[in-house]
Amino acid sequence: MGFSRRHINSEEYQFKTLLDTYNTQLFSRIISKIKDRENAKDVLQEVLVHLWNHRSEMNSNRWENIIFNTCNQKIAEYFRKSRNGMLHDPLGDRIDTSMDDLIWAEQKDKQLSLLNSAIESIVPPIRQTIFKLNKLYGFTQEQIALQFNLSRRTVENHISQAMRYLKENSR
Predict the structure, then answer these.
(1) How confident is the model over 3-33, as pLDDT tens digits?
(2) Left (φ > 0), alpha (ψ -120 to 50) or beta: where does 85 sit?
(3) What integer pLDDT is reported at residue 147 of this predicted model?
(4) CA-CA distance, 33 to 39, in Å (whole number)?
(5) Which domains are assigned to the chain?
(6) What pLDDT is recorded for position 95?
(7) What are 80-118's pLDDT values in tens digits?
(8) 155 near 145, Cβ under 8 Å?
(9) Is-contact 74 43, C-beta < 8 A?
(10) Residue 162, Cβ neighbours under 10 Å: how many?
(11) Could you tell me if 18 and 58 are in contact, meaning their C-beta atoms sit under 8 angstroms apart?
(12) Model's pTM, two decimal places?
């Protein structure tokens, strides 16, 4: 039991020493190829995980070769994934779109305000009322015709003339 604990501690110490020695060189190599700091950190992490997972297979005489070959393989893997569209940006799901949402909401409010002004300018007032009942409140033409004691065709004409008026005045 004592031997394996010492062995693990020795292994961890060797790996930490290795990291301290090569970490800066690895990151410099990765960032020179990838250019994006966050993606470079991710690739460095993949290199380190790979080295840790395969530490028992490594020959101590060839550490440097293995480290830099692994680094080059992970850089190539990154570019393959990015070319194939397989990279997932974990921050992409959390991008702050509040400014875009605010601009969109302001534009929508402005358009609704313009539409309301145009609706309010529909004359005669009965046409405005019929249009609002049908388009804004969802009453059918038959219901409106019954309510105002008009023919359905008259209600239809009022709605189409109001629509024509709004189209002409929205340009």
Answers:
(1) 445 555 677 777 788 778 888 888 888 888 8
(2) left
(3) 93
(4) 11
(5) 2-92 (1.10.1740), 98-169 (1.10.10.10)
(6) 56
(7) 888 876 655 554 445 566 777 788 888 888 888 888 888
(8) yes
(9) yes
(10) 22
(11) no
(12) 0.45
